[in-house]
Amino acid sequence: MDSQHPCGTSIVYAELATLWSVPRAHQNALHAPGAHNSGCAHAVVGIKPKRQVLSKLHAKPALRRVPHSSSVTKTIKMYRFTRSAMMMPMMNYGMGMAPFFKVTVFEQEHFQGKCQEFTSECCNIQECGFDNIRSIRVESGAWVGYEHHDFQGQQFILERGEYPHWDAYSGNLSYHVERLMSFRPVYCASHQSSRMTIFERENFLGRSVELCDDYPSLQAMGWCGPEVGSMHVQCGAFVCYEFPGYRGRQYIMECERHSGDFQHWRNWGSHSQTPQIQSIRRIQH
């Protein structure tokens, strides 16, 4: 058994503590004959050991700190910036808190009767308890309304503003139909960057002209006739009208529909009856 040292500490621990802090040059003197005859082990060499030496024997190993790399930091920042721009486009609009698309529909004209707010598409307003939509208030974003449910029939562009009755958004149709049963947002509307190409004949054949502005009369700008055979929307969204001055049937052309390719006038919508297009404008968002 280990004999107890007069200092109250085992000789073994005293020697171990001393060897931890004492330079190698003095360690031989510590083990020399008679080295333990004095009061304390460290008195033999005349060096006082540090008190924290024993605690070092039982301490947990320190964690190794990995130096920061400037390249790693830059990569993380780039990823976070790209993610916020791509994953949350709605939150960057306006004040960043309100939804990008918001519309309130009313069952009666002049914003009377039952009403309901929407921030996404509605394929059948009757499923929401409405008989019909007769007035609309668009608070943000661009929308397109349809004469029938499931986005069928005549199309009506609905941009930010108030539409107290059917005539306000109908585009002066040649026939009177006061009915709007479904609607959806136009997600790709981008007024400043909208661009499309119209072609004289179907399947993108014949004379072509690229459009990036509003044209109340295609013939006035030099287009060859009252008809358009096919269209390709590179970016953004347009509304095409049957007659000059933005009148008649409306056709909403979006780069996200059919990949922007409208090879035939029958692709313009379920209500398409003629290739006649005489005015075109960009959709406001």
From TrEMBL:
Entry keyword annotation includes Hydrolase: no
Gene Ontology annotations of biological process type: lens development in camera-type eye; visual perception
Gene Ontology MF term list: structural constituent of eye lens
Family matches, as InterPro entries: Beta/Gamma-Crystallin, Beta/gamma_crystallin, G_crystallin-like
Keywords of this entry: Eye lens protein, Repeat
Domain Beta/gamma crystallin 'Greek key': from-to ranges: 101-140, 141-187, 194-235
Pfam families, sorted: Crystall (PF00030)
Function of the protein: Crystallins are the dominant structural components of the vertebrate eye lens.
PANTHER family: BETA/GAMMA CRYSTALLIN (PTHR11818), BETAA1C-CRYSTALLIN-RELATED (PTHR11818:SF54)
Similarity-based family: Belongs to the beta/gamma-crystallin family.
Official protein name in the record: Crystallin, beta A1, like 1
Species of provenance: Carassius auratus (Goldfish)
